[in-house]
Amino acid sequence: MQNLASHHSFHFPAHCQQLVTLETVDAASEWLAHHREQQWLILGEGSNTAFIDDYDGTVVKIHITGKKVVQTEHDFLISVGAGENWHELVTYSLQHHMYGLENLALIPGSVGAAPIQNIGAYGVEVASFIDSVECLDVTTGQKQVKTTQQCQFGYRDSLFKRDWRNRLLICTVTFRLPKKWQAVTNYGELAELDNPGPQTIFNKVVSIRQSKLPDPAITGNAGSFFKNPIIPVALYHDIASRYPQCPVFAVDNERVKIPAAWLIDTLGFKGKQHGGIHCHARQPLVLTNDGNGNGKQLLELARLIRDSVLSEFGIMLENEVQLIGKQGALTL
Fold first, then answer.
1. Is 46 within 8 Å of 9 (Cβ atoms)?
2. 93 in catalytic set
3. Mean of the pLDDT values across residues 94-106?
4. Which of 102, 110, 224, 306 is catalytic?
5. What is the mean pLDDT of the chain?
6. Which residues, 6+ apart, have CB-to-CB distance to 149 below 8 Å?
7. Contact at 8 Å (CB) between 107 and 126?
8. Catalytic choice (156, 158, 209, 306)
9. Catalytic residue among 45, 84, 134, 320
10. Which domain holds residue 168?
11. What is the CATH number of the domain that holds 221?
């Protein structure tokens, strides 16, 4: 049995039957050829995963590294191994004067995990910069290249998270960064910046995240536990009639987005504790492990929050964090 506490950012002392690290595409293809029928789970850095219980299978860590840059007349194309660290890629792109990813600074996790979740922050989603994703089909061992359109990106969603979950193993992600850069500063505290450059935006995002979010290396957590819900306009009007201060962001003519943190905070969960699991005192969207928590307590607090929000607001929160039990993915 292998201890997984250091392989997921909640640090619960869960175990798996075997832990395998694959460092090249060929090694991944070879391993799959001999273990296709076994129970296994693909894992990057575990920053968006919580092992709720011991996992009765093999955990496969992807550590394919390397970067290759090709220039066109209008863009930089950066092909990056799935095992590279995401924040280090953002830093690398800035150092080499390739801009666009600065709003996504300090998001924990690997490059290979970024398209699965379609990571986003401060008005930017990574899907805007993904040109293609090179994968292995785990059932056939064949290489596939998915264009950004084929990835079917949505809000914290993609084909890799739904239809092709555990079917495609991401090896390389190619990003297209335009040489003609445009700042995105219409979100939150970035709006305070006056004609900023990419480095200024990067520095501001890092400062905001460090001030509001707990460091998973110190306090176990996986960042935002719930997605921000997108709801019908009619439901928002009903909520606003009772809570006029409810913040809202337009999505289209029929839907709006409401911050899940506001819903949770309004119901008084900020700072609440259940065993060793806490609803963070500064950012109620984040659930943390004080070192004494376990998967059972995390599920119980998360379900209490979800059920309370549904009862009061008629909104069913969805977990953003991947929850893993004995047989694989769990539903909250």
1. yes
2. no
3. 97
4. 224
5. 95
6. none
7. no
8. 156
9. 320
10. 67-208
11. 3.90.78.10
